[in-house]
Amino acid sequence: MSLAKAFLLFLSLVVSVSALATPHVHRGVHHRALAGRVASPVPVDVPAAPIRSRQNGKRCKPRPSSSVVAQPATTSSPGLGACGITNHDTDHIAAVSHLLFDAFPGYNGANPNQNPICGRKITASYKGKSVTVAITDRCEGCALLDLDFSPSAFDQIADPSIGRLDDVTWTWI
Questions:
Q1: Per-residue pLDDT tens for 125-157?
Q2: DSSP bridge partners of 130
Q3: Nearest 5°: CA angle at 76, between 71 and 78?
Q4: Rg (Cα) of the chain, in Å, rounded?
Q5: How far apart are CA 112 and CA 101, in angstroms?
Q6: Residues 6+ away with beta carbon under 8 Å from 135
Q7: How do the domains of the chain map onto residue ranges?
Q8: CATH superfamily name and code, 71-172
Q9: Burial, 110: exposed, middle or buried (Cβ in 10 Å; 0-12, 13-18, 19+)?
């Protein structure tokens, strides 16, 4: 056993000496000239970002347009909405278009329950009557600024038997 260890020790010594005796890759004069040079710093003009300040140190809240004119509105029976809230016919809620819901400022598209539009309130008006509702769902069949009301919210501004209103105006509150 000790003879095998001695042989391995001798073999590793021979390999080590052989590696030291082998010449390294020859590098030309050009390489030595480049390596010997000290890099000098080069000034780069970087425009400074404008500094914006907020009044009272508060964060800005994204706000969509303040008023929408003459948009269609419909009614449907609510249930579990895209905001993760189970709604009932008696709740004053509405669904916005999937186009508005998915593109709302601050929404990253990952979890609809975390959309900043959820819980936002609007006041909708139709022929002199108005209702305030919370946004709790998205409507796949709605155009960009259409609303889909719960039956009780729809009843506040028009007879539910009408089914569709063509001149509803609404504003964010």
A1: 999 999 999 999 999 989 899 999 999 999 999
A2: 125
A3: 120
A4: 36
A5: 9
A6: 83, 93, 94, 95, 96, 117, 118, 119, 120, 121, 122
A7: 71-172
A8: RlpA-like domain (2.40.40.10)
A9: exposed
